[in-house]
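sry for the spam today, last one i promise. C-alpha cells for design, 133 residues
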C-alpha cells in the first residue's frame, strides 16, 4: 500500500525542516553556541520556528498518512495536507520575519495548522465510523 499524497507533503516538510535547520546552524556557528540561545531575538525566533515545525508536523503527517491508508478520499487528504504545509511555511516565515513577535503570517500559519489537524482528525473519525458502522 502506498501513500503518494502524504509522501509529497512529507517531502516538502522535510525540505522546510532543512531550511529552518540551516538557519539555526548559522546562528549556532555565529555565536559558537551548541545548545540554547543567546539574547539575540532573531536567534531565538529561528530556534522556535524550527522547534515548532518539529512539534506539529510529525503528528499532522502521521494523521494524513493514516487517512490516506484508510481510504479517505484523496482530494480531502490533499487539501488537509496543503493546509498543514502552507500553515507551517507561513508560521515559520512569520516567526522569523516578526522576530518572534506578533506577525500576520505567523497567526495565519497557526490557524491553518490547527485547522488541518482538526479536519484530519474529523476525517479519521468519519472514516472509522463509515467502516465499522
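last one done:
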Amino acid at each position: 500500500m502506498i501513500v503518494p499524497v502524504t509522501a509529497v507533503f512529507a517531502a516538502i516538510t522535510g525540505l522546510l525542516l532543512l531550511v529552518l535547520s540551516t538557519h539555526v546552524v548559522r546562528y549556532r556557528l555565529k555565536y559558537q553556541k551548541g545548545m540554547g540561545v543567546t539574547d539575540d531575538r532573531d536567534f531565538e525566533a529561528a530556534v522556535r520556528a524550527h522547534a515548532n515545525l518539529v512539534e506539529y508536523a510529525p503528528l499532522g503527517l502521521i494523521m494524513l498518512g493514516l487517512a490516506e491508508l484508510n481510504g479517505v478520499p484523496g482530494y480531502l487528504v490533499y487539501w488537509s495536507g496543503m493546509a498543514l504545509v502552507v500553515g507551517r511555511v507561513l508560521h515559520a516565515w512569520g516567526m522569523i520575519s516578526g522576530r518572534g513577535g506578533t506577525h500576520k503570517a505567523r497567526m495565519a500559519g497557526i490557524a491553518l495548522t490547527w485547522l488541518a489537524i482538526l479536519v484530519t482528525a474529523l476525517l479519521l473519525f468519519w472514516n472509522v465510523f463509515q467502516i465499522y458502522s
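The mean pLDDT is 97. ok im logging off now
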